[in-house]
Here is the input.
Amino acid sequence: GKDIRYVMDYVKDMEADLLSSDNKRVFITHSGCDKAIVDTVRDYLTSLNHFEEILETNAGAVVSSHCGPGTLGVLFIAK
Here is the structure.
């Protein structure tokens, strides 16, 4: 739906940064996102054929309380 489109626009906007990042691992961190959204982001990151490991984590209390439910971030180490 609409939420997946917005999230994927956000993730695709980072593609150049993702592909130039350290390829060891990337994190999908969220605060209660719908499984379909997380799976779509994971599928996209997998399709880049860049990362050795894709990990899903839950956002902590500070991020969750400030950003609210449904927040998603993609975390990686820039080179």
